[in-house]
């Protein structure tokens, strides 16, 4: 049995109907993420990384190709199956936190479990545990407006993890954070990945954030451009990333 | 350019404007119809019966106008709230505030004029259709009634134009006071979660106490009369608002604090939305409850009056027909009816006195009723006059100082003669009444007459024949009993059961008619108020729903949450409003015999209209907040 948690094969995404001016956002992308990996997706604006995240997160359908998450083919699923799948197998962290500001932190985190019909007692135990892991036990009864940006993103991470998803999908998670909070969140994510074996896929355009990953895939104009693995320490990896980005920029200029 | 912008944005918000338009058109057309009924002067003069109803319609128009003012202000401020962001964007792009204010002013006014145009047309149609229906129902000739009546039209236009000008100005001023940033950030202001402390509970208890006290006063109007009504109405209204301000948020908080319930599926979210709503909608929910009470109350009141007509006409009576000297035609008509009892009594009449023959009375003692308008009980059944008449002569309304007069006629007999034997109060006023032995009777010089009392199986079955009988009786009695020096135009009216019935019927039909339309107008305005308020907050909720969808909430569950949330928002004012009506109807027991008769009819009309608005609101709200599926 394969240990791949995510398998993407020849995925294409075309916007606009036939005959009209079509734009190809993804032109046959294939990638695999193994269980327990921490993978970054990088690329310039308009390269297709958000589209890729959307089709993987089942929010958008690919025009063709095949996506399998945790052994389930999601490309043929119906809307409701997709919704259920999202709520059970996927965890999301968004740039703008996307917490419901009319619910307390506790209720926000508990939501995915409530949706699955988990008993109230069990919910409490699980929320307490994940809150402890993320260091937000003190603020569970507060509302999102009452806490800082860093705390909000931790709360969002807790919500993404509370139901133990197959993979955590992060979309520019540090985009709205200052450098101190960003660093702290990234360290937490590394921790989750290393100590708790959480599989993570993070989309970012920030080289510093990306340097926390184990492997980075670069996309440009809807296709995979290259991929690099982290072998040495983070500083070295950071430089490596900058080199690839420079290369990408150069190839961009040539065209 | 601004005109173009304005038109395009109006087109975009067509749905919202349509809701406002419908509310306004309903209000305007009904206002106009009331005006035509109250103001058509030739017509009012020609129908004495209408004169009293005219007042009813004026009161109705006034009430309607009063509520409409609030409605227009509410509705317009909601529409303004919906457009804040767009207007702010224009300003940021460099449009001058004065220009925008001008645009807004023009829009509001245009809206008003359009609704006035449509409203007048609908109003004319309504008056020619339903107005005529009312009149045929009342058996009133439509002569002199014009559905298209210029003074009424002027009145309607004048009143509403002033109203629209006022709201337009206020809208423009409100906009002028807001800064660009206020407008653009309109969406981003977070919903504050206010802490609810012990104070709320005190207010909640106070609210409940006030409502209870108000109910007590209104249900015991007999003891407290006018002050009781005023204090009761005011106290109930204040109490209602307090309940909505305090009790409802507390209730939702209790729901939310139930961990088990809160942790189930989307309940945490539904309750959170609800809490935000009940905190923000307290005043409007209170208003809605009061409007429901008024609307359904108007309908139920009108209907209750209508239902009680026959009871009113038959109160204190044992017989259905009183005929003085019936003729051939009368007997012919009687032959077609199912007669349960028919008695004949002879009497003689000279210039000053009417003498009834005692033997006839004793031979067929008439039925009398213990019920009066003041004290009515359905258990009081009819009985026969049975007090002994041993003297040779009795007189009604004996003059204590005149020792020459015979004894006072015993109460039961006196009641029977006054209520059943007399066709017109003029008969009783112009003559003294005696009950005498044959020995005296035969000596009396004067014309001999007879009166026939008839009891029928069912009064309302024979309205046609009874009407004709009454007309013949009028012809017969008018020359005899009409004051000689009276103005020739003065009406000669009968107090027979049919005449009382006819008058009460006309009056109550007017009340019912007005109550029904007032009720519909109130409900339409009230429900659209609630709808506006909910829809104006909808854009803010959009992000929440799209987020929930992202983390994998099924669409049905989101829809279910919306149904549940709005249902609770709608049901509270409905329950309290209906409770007001059910208890408030008790106060009509002063003038009505059975105020609760057929109360289910107005209640179901209300439920249907209200449910429709609920469903429409859910539909529109869904359209706004639920993300479009790929």
From TrEMBL, chain A:
The keyword Zinc does not apply. One of its GO terms (cellular component) is membrane protein complex. Residues 6-246 form the ABC transporter domain. PANTHER family: ALPHA-D-RIBOSE 1-METHYLPHOSPHONATE 5-TRIPHOSPHATE SYNTHASE SUBUNIT PHNL, LIPOPROTEIN-RELEASING SYSTEM ATP-BINDING PROTEIN LOLD. GO terms for molecular function: ATP binding; ATP hydrolysis activity; transmembrane transporter activity. The keyword Nucleotide-binding applies. This is ABC transporter ATP-binding protein. The lineage of its organism: Bacteria, Bacillati, Bacillota, Bacilli, Bacillales. InterPro entries: AAA+_ATPase (IPR003593), ABC_transporter-like_ATP-bd (IPR003439), MacB-like_ATP-bd (IPR017911), P-loop_NTPase (IPR027417). CDD domains: ABC_MJ0796_LolCDE_FtsE.
TrEMBL record, chain B:
Pfam families: FtsX. GO terms for biological process: transmembrane transport. Residues 59-177 form the ABC3 transporter permease C-terminal domain. It is found in: Cell membrane. It comes from the Bacteria. The keyword Repeat does not apply. The chain crosses the membrane at residues 17-35, 55-82, 103-126, 146-167, 198-218, 224-252, 284-305, 512-535, 566-593, 599-621. The keyword Nucleus does not apply. InterPro entries: ABC-4_Integral_Memb_Prot, ABC3_permease_C, ABC_permease_BceB-typ. One of its GO terms (cellular component) is plasma membrane. PANTHER family: ABC TRANSPORTER PERMEASE, ABC TRANSPORTER PERMEASE-RELATED-RELATED. This is ABC transporter permease. The lineage of its organism: Bacteria, Bacillati, Bacillota, Bacilli, Bacillales.
């Amino acid at each position: 049995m394969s240990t791949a948690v995510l398998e993407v094969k020849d995925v294409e995404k075309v916007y606009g109907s036939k005959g009209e001016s079509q734009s190809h956002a993804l032109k046959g992308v294939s990638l695999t993420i193994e269980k327990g990996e921490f993978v970054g997706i990088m690329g310039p604006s308009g390269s297709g990384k958000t589209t890729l995240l959307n089709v993987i997160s089942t929010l958008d359908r690919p025009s063709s190709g095949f996506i399998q998450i945790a052994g389930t083919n999601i490309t043929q699923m119906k809307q409701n199956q997709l919704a259920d799948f999202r709520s059970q197998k996927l965890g999301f962290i968004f740039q703008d936190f996307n917490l419901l500001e009319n619910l307390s932190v506790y209720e926000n985190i508990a939501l995915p479990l409530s949706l699955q019909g988990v008993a109230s007692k069990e919910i409490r135990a699980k929320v307490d545990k994940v809150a402890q892991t993320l260091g937000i036990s003190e603020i569970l009864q507060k509302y999102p407006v009452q806490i800082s940006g860093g705390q909000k993103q931790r709360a969002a991470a807790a919500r993404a993890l509370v139901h133990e998803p197959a993979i955590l999908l992060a979309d520019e998670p540090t985009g709205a954070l200052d450098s101190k909070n960003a660093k702290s969140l990234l360290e937490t994510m590394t921790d989750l990945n290393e100590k708790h074996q959480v599989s993570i896929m993070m989309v970012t355009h920030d080289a510093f954030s990306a340097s926390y990953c184990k492997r980075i895939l670069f996309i440009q104009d809807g296709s995979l451009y290259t991929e690099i693995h982290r072998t040495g320490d983070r500083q070295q990896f950071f430089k490596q990333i900058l080199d690839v980005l420079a290369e990408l920029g150069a190839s961009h200029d040539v065209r | 350019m601004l005109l173009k912008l304005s038109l395009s944005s109006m087109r975009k918000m067509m749905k919202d404007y349509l809701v406002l338009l419908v509310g306004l058109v309903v209000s305007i057309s009904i206002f106009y119809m009331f005006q035509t009924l109250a103001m058509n002067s030739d017509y009012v003069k020609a129908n004495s019966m209408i004169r009293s109803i005219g007042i009813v319609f004026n009161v109705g128009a006034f009430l309607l106008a009063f509520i409409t003012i609030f409605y227009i202000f509410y509705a317009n401020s909601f529409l303004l709230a919906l457009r804040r962001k767009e207007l702010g964007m224009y300003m940021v792009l460099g449009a001058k505030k004065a220009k925008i204010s001008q645009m807004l002013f023009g829009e509001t006014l245009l809206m008003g004029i359009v609704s006035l145009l449509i409203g007048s047309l609908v109003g004319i149609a309504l008056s020619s259709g339903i107005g005529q229906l009312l009149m045929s129902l009342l058996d009133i000739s439509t002569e002199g009634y014009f559905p298209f009546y210029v003074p009424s039209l002027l009145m309607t236009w004048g009143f509403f134009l002033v109203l629209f000008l006022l709201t337009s100005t206020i809208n423009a001023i409100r906009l002028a006071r807001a800064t660009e940033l206020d407008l653009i950030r309109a969406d981003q202001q977070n919903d504050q979660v206010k802490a609810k402390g012990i104070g709320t509970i005190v207010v909640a208890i106070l609210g409940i106490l006030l409502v209870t006290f108000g109910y007590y006063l209104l249900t015991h109007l007999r003891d407290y009369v006018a002050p009781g009504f005023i204090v009761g109405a005011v106290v109930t209204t204040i109490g209602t608002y307090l309940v909505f301000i305090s009790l409802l948020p507390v209730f939702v908080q209790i729901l939310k604090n139930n961990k088990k319930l809160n942790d189930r599926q989307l309940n945490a979210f539904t309750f959170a939305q609800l809490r935000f709503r009940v905190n923000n909608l307290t005043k409007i929910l209170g208003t809605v409850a009061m409007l429901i009470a008024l609307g359904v109350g108007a309908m139920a009141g009108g209907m209750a009056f209508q239902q009680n007509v026959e009871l009113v006409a038959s109160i204190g009576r044992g017989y259905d027909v009183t005929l003085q000297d019936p003729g051939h035609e009368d007997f012919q008509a009687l032959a077609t009816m199912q007669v349960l009892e028919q008695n004949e009594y002879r009497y003689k009449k000279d210039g000053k006195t009417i003498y009834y023959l005692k033997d006839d009375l004793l031979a067929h003692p008439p039925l009398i009723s213990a019920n009066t308008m003041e004290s009515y009980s359905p258990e009081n059944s009819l009985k026969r006059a049975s007090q002994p008449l041993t003297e040779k002569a009795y007189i009604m309304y004996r003059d204590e100082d005149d020792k020459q007069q015979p004894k006072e006629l015993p109460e039961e007999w006196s009641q029977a003669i006054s209520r059943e034997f007399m066709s017109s109060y003029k008969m009783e006023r112009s003559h003294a009444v005696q009950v005498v032995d044959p020995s005296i009777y035969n000596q009396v010089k004067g014309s001999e007459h007879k009166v026939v009392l008839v009891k029928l199986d069912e009064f309302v079955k024979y309205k046609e024949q009874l009407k004709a009988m009454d007309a013949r009786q009028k012809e017969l009695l008018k020359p005899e009993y009409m004051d000689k020096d009276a103005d020739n135009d003065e009406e000669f009216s009968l107090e027979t059961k049919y005449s009382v019935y006819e008058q009460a019927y006309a009056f109550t039909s007017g009340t019912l008619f007005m109550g029904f339309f007032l009720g519909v107008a109130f409900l339409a305005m009230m429900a659209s108020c609630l709808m506006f308020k909910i829809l104006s907050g909808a854009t803010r909720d959009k992000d929440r729903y799209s987020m929930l969808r992202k983390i994998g909430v099924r669409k049905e569950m989101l829809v279910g949450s919306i149904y549940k949330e709005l249902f609770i928002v709608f049901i509270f004012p409905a329950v309290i409003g209906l409770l007001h009506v059910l208890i408030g109807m008790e106060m009509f027991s002063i003038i009505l015999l059975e105020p609760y008769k057929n109360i289910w009819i107005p209640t179901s009309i209300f439920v249907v209209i209200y449910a429709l608005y609920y469903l429409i609101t859910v539909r529109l709200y869904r359209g706004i907040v639920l993300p479009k599926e790929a």
